[in-house]
Specification:
The protein is an alpha/beta fold and 354 residues long. The protein has 2 domains: 151 residues, ATPase, nucleotide binding domain (Nucleotidyltransferase, domain 5), CATH 3.30.420; 166 residues, ATPase, nucleotide binding domain (Nucleotidyltransferase, domain 5). It is built from 12 helices and 10 strands. Strand 1 and strand 2 form a beta hairpin. The two termini are 26 Å apart. Bound molecules: 5'-O-[(R)-(carboxyoxy)(hydroxy)phosphoryl]adenosine and zinc ion (ZN). The site of zinc ion has 5 residues, from helix 4.
Length: 354
């Protein structure tokens, strides 16, 4: 079964064709990062307009790259939420119209759950020679979902049966990467910038706190962000009133790298501690990480060394950040369990909880 996936919830316009949930036939992504970079973050209105400009071409490219035409496509899947309303509307309108005019079943997909399903893509013929996991995750699956909008630990007992063990009480970890990068003067998006610079720094020079919460599976990253800001203010000889926009120019390159390394180490340690604790308590068969921050190399190596009994297989970085292959993959498993949705009544859910 071949499914066309469409994703436009934030600042990536993406379309992909996936066969039987695990074989990647094409994976097209147009990123708006360069457009939003000058604002230091995603501007919703600009994002929606940019999706509108490219979405038709991106969908056509995904079909061409997969060597398919509409007669081969069995269903259309589109991100229905959560995300930015204007951005979600563009993808959902495209999905509705295509489902209707091409007479295909339509599936509305939860973006955050879909991130986990990137780990089910184990085969490819899209020509990109990605390093994919060699086997499917096995239930029960413990999933650490870490993106720009979410930080959650979820136990999947089966495809439709999951338990939210914990989540962030304030900022998502990707958001903390982005904000700290801005404080120390690194470009958006902050995750890749920080992880690139961190190896040049000394991660022991700046001591940052790991928050401890009542539920050991909940997270809080706003304290870490503020602690990094205070340390950066002190590092440039200022106090808590020193405006953050003055910090980048007053930090030395060595200090900047030390901040990147110290922040990354603390954020990763927080995630690894909670995941290891949940693994010990819930005894999953597989542990997976998902979402943009799952592309982080330190997180991958630290998690594997903290869980030596697991042979953790990671999705390639471009399937961790936003993409439409994960949308088509989750849709495949939904086709076996749920009825398609009507393209006429198809709505978006910008704040859709898991
Ligand atoms: O999943 P995603 O592409 O979009 C959302 O659904 O939010 O995640 C984007 C987030 C951004 O905050 C970005 O800074 C972060 O993922 N990110 C990383 C890395 N690559 C992307 N964070 C840490 N290390 C990375 N290598
Ligand atoms: Zn995402």
């Amino acid at each position: 079964m071949k499914i066309l996936g469409i994703e436009s919830s934030c600042d990536e316009t993406a379309a992909a064709v996936v066969e039987d949930g695990c074989k990647l036939l094409s994976n097209e992504v147009v990123s708006q990062i360069d457009i939003h970079k000058e604002f230091g973050g995603v501007v919703p209105e600009v994002a929606a307009r940019s999706h509108l400009e490219v979405i038709t071409a991106v969908i056509q490219r995904a079909l061409d790259q997969a060597g398919t035409d509409w007669s081969d496509i069995d269903a259309v899947a589109v991100t229905q939420g959560p995300g930015l309303s204007g951005s979600l509307l563009i993808g959902s309108i495209a999905g509705r119209v295509l489902a209707l005019t091409k007479d295909k079943p339509l599936y509305g997909i939860h973006h955050v759950t879909a991130h986990v399903y990137a780990n089910f893509i184990t085969d490819q013929s899209d020509g990109s020679e990605l390093q994919l996991p060699t086997r499917l995750p096995e239930f029960p699956i413990l999933a650490l979902i870490v993106s720009g909008g979410h930080s959650q630990l979820v136990l999947f007992k089966d495809h439709d049966d999951y338990e939210l063990l914990g989540q962030t009480l304030d900022d998502a970890v990707g958001e903390a990467f982005d904000k700290v990068a801005k404080i120390i003067g690194l470009p958006y998006p902050g995750g890749p910038s920080i992880s690139k610079l961190a190896p040049e720094g000394d991660d022991t020079t700046i001591e940052l706190p790991i928050s401890r919460l009542d539920n050991p599976y909940d997270f809080s990253f706003s304290g870490l962000k503020t602690a990094t800001l205070r340390a950066a203010q002190a590092g440039v000889g200022g106090d808590y009133q020193t405006p953050s926009f003055e910090i980048p120019n007053r930090l030395t390159d060595e200090q900047r790298a030390d901040f990147a390394a110290s922040f990354q180490k603390t954020a990763v340690q927080t995630l690894v501690d909670a995941t290891v604790k949940a693994t010990n308590e819930f005894a999953p068969k597989s542990v997976v990480i998902a979402g943009g921050v799952a592309a982080n190399r330190l997180l991958r190596t630290e998690l594997q060394s903290a869980l030596p009994k697991f042979n953790i297989e990671y999705a390639p970085p471009n399937l961790c950040t936003d993409n439409a292959a994960m949308i088509a993959t989750l849709a495949y498993f939904q086709t076996q369990r749920a009825e398609p949705q009507s393209p006429f009544g198809f709505d978006i859910f910008p704040s859709w909880a898991m």
